[in-house]
Amino acid sequence: MIRVLTGIAAEGSDEDKRLVAESLIRLRGSDVDSALIVALKVAPPAEQRELIRALELRQTKAAVPALFDLAGGEGAAIRHAAIAAVGKLGDAAACAGLVNLTQADPQDAVSAMAEICRRESTAEPMLTAFATVAPPGKAALLEALGSMGGAQALAAVRAELKAEDAEVWVAAVRALANWPDAAPLDDLAALASTTADARSKALALRGVAHLAPLAKDRRREAVIIITRAMKTGGAPSEQKALLAALGEIPDAAALNALQASLSDPGLASEAKAAMDQIQERRAKASALPWDDQAIALFTSPENLCRGATATNLDNLTPDGQGQGPFAALDGNPETYWDETDNQPLYWLRVQLKQPARVACLRILGFQHHNYAPKDFEVLGDGKLIKKVENAVYERNLLTVNLPPTECRAIELKITGYYGQSPAIRELGLFDKPGTAK
Questions:
Q1: Cβ atoms < 10 Å from Cβ of 230
Q2: Taking CA 280 as the corner, what is the angle to CA 279 and CA 284, rounded to the nearest 5 degrees?
Q3: Scanning 108, 320, 393, 396, which has the fewest C-beta atoms within 10 Å of its C-beta?
Q4: 251-260 residue pLDDT tens
Q5: How far apart, in Å, are the Cα atoms of 173 and each of 21, 133, 137, 143, 203?
Q6: Is the pTM of this model over 0.85?
């Protein structure tokens, strides 16, 4: 039936493709995965796209060698899909093959490598690749490291600030500017005040604007860094970005710093908007959609999601201020997993560090009965454990007891939600039944 289904999808509508994808996922039998791989090697490109998607959704890791064969082909669309699938299915050993692809497809190859490294919680394959790749691949690696963070990655990126290749040097600056935490804030502030390169100065200033609000343990210092950065110049867009960053720091020092820009006709409206934002944030601070008691549940050692990895099997992209699946497991309620609004299916998969008994699931939604999962299936290693309908949250916290199940992976297939999408601030899995909070 495999080629019959992929033939329908290749010529059919979006609804046909959706139904075929679901059908291919549901096919059972010890020979299905191998048959999909065989079909992948001989099918025409239109069907290969559907087979690649099915192998991804089935988590068929044995397909990686066949995907590498397609990744070296001439068709750009299939090559792109195959490399992306290697990123979803491969392990650290696959990174060596991806390094070989950086010459022809640096962005795709590095993106796949970064996905593997995030899933396996290591940047080592990317750091090792630095020694062998050409400048375009090295630039792509730097930007990918910038999205991952970590002390080793930061040391590697800092070292490339001395690179002679202009493309690599700018990529290092861009990586620091997009860092997921405030660790390189001082580097960027220093660069903004010393560089004579206009492009790097702009990146550094925007990096300061991005990172300063993340320095939550040094807010007063962050305000000083922003005000000094503003004095170094930059285009009006950079100045406005720095003012907006002050607006994200709910501190009296930020309000005082913004006062100085009220007299500047070109910046007054942005300064006023930032001040209003601070006042609003301070007024709402006592009404956050979570409390310390709830967060303690997710940060406790009993939460099986500690050290687990999350992936989305729906191929949707983050929406608005939402982030990727990892944000649902990071223990930080200020970050959240959220994807494109109003989709029929959102599919989140959590890979545990090791097989464990799961008897309870907890979800902290975006807000109480607003942007939170409502109707969903809970699957353990691909098998249905429980179906939840019209979920009822208690102060934005949902507790669902499950039939105790030994498994390595838990999936949420979400088909209904409060608001326009099922945003999750934190997801927790536990081996003992819980009680609603």
A1: 23
A2: 120
A3: 320
A4: 889 999 999 8
A5: 41, 19, 16, 9, 7
A6: no
